[in-house]
Amino acid sequence: MASYKLLLLPGDGIGPEVMGEVTRLIDWVNTSGLATIETETDLVGGCAYDAHGESVSDATMKIALEADAVMLGAVGGPKWDGVPYDKRPEAGLLRLRKDLELFANLRPAICYPALADASSLKRELVDGLDIMIVRELTGGVYFGEPKEITDLGNGQKRAVDTQVYETYEIVRIAAVAFELARKRGNLVHSAEKRNVMKTGVLWNEVVTQVHKDRYSDVKLEHILADNCAMQLVRAPKQFDVIVTDNLFGDVLSDEAAMATGSLGMLPSASLGAEDERGRRKALYEPVHGSAPDIAGKGAANPIATIASFAMALRYSFDLGEAADRIEKAIADVLDQGLRTGDIKQDGCKTVGTREMGDAIIASLKSAT
Ligand code: NAD
């Protein structure tokens, strides 16, 4: 039986509460004989700062680098508002992403039929929606140099950010998107602004070449990023996989996510390059933050974190079927009318974190 090492970093606020439900799913994987997942639990974010004066310690980073995958809950909260900038809770998360060299951010936007009425779009536009946004995470305008504000001395200032992409960065993110599309609807939309940006021209050229050389079996469409934003609210179901740069990906993934309802439902994965064994470094985390307003109340929705764990099973542990089963169990409990506070609906039963986890595990076990 395959054996994997998973580092759990519950973090702050609701992080430990939602991660608690994941540990029960890990037990389910282990006792079902699907694989052996060995876990280690450590600190990140504000709790790590309180313990070590750093938002992630070198010792934790060493474990993260050696693990097959890392799962993170959430970091931050008002308690740490005054800590020095380079030690703030989010710095721990940024170091993890940087040191693990996670260049591909995967953000699924899935609309469970039971929640279609919670979307700001009409039910028929989002019912059954299943999009994957693949965002380049380590390059582009957030990191390009020069990046500065200059005082011009005449009462004016000048700010510069620089959008830079090199061929290899576009090749590797395009390959991730095409590989994913092959396992899904076999369609990739590549979004850029080639009409006004040189990086858009190169992006288009490189994606076209990668497609021609290695993935001509996948359907490729090029789309201008602004048109992509419009199409996502006009007819989102036309998309399968969207691949785009860091800046456009930041905006388009949030836009697509909102079509699905609540923050408490949104998982994510960030992947690095394949090593010689064909494995990628990976970090799985819910999109939401530490929700200090509801922390400690047992009210948080654990589904985003549970769905992130399902992504870990699929992309790091080669357990796609178990991932499918967890996603089906999530859909089942929503169909049964169970809702946490963030997705509560008339006629449905409002439950807490633990009860939601109980129901998902019960559904999994009854389907076995
Ligand atoms: P947030 O995502 O923590 O919360 C926004 C709203 O959504 C809150 O009302 C919260 O109660 C609700 N919410 C979020 N997740 C929920 C869940 N699982 N179940 C039910 N309701 C949920 O964003 P925020 O309030 O802007 O930030 C709070 C803290 O989290 C800040 O310190 C921020 O820096 C940090 N943060 C961390 C991450 C991360 O760890 N990746 C991401 C975003 C924000």
Automatic annotation (TrEMBL):
Question: Where do the annotations place Mg(2+) binding?
Answer: D226, D250, D254
Q: Is Cytoplasm among the key words of this record?
A: yes
Q: Which UniProt keywords apply?
A: Amino-acid biosynthesis, Branched-chain amino acid biosynthesis, Cytoplasm, Leucine biosynthesis, Magnesium, Manganese, Metal-binding, NAD, Oxidoreductase
Which GO cellular component terms, listed alphabetically, does the Swiss-Prot or TrEMBL entry include? cytosol
Catalytic activity reads: (2R,3S)-3-isopropylmalate + NAD(+) = 4-methyl-2-oxopentanoate + CO2 + NADH
| Listed EC numbers | 1.1.1.85
Instruction: Give any GO molecular function from the UniProt entry.
Output: 3-isopropylmalate dehydrogenase activity
Tell me which domain of life the UniProt entry assigns to the organism this sequence originates from: Bacteria
Q: Where in the cell is it found?
A: Cytoplasm
The Gene Ontology biological process annotation of the record reads: L-leucine biosynthetic process
* Record-marked site positions (Important for catalysis): Y142, K193
Q: What is its main location?
A: cytoplasm
NCBIfam families, from UniProt? leuB
Quaternary data: Homodimer.
Regarding protein family, the annotation reads: Belongs to the isocitrate and isopropylmalate dehydrogenases family. LeuB type 1 subfamily.
Name of protein: 3-isopropylmalate dehydrogenase
Q: Which gene encodes it?
A: leuB
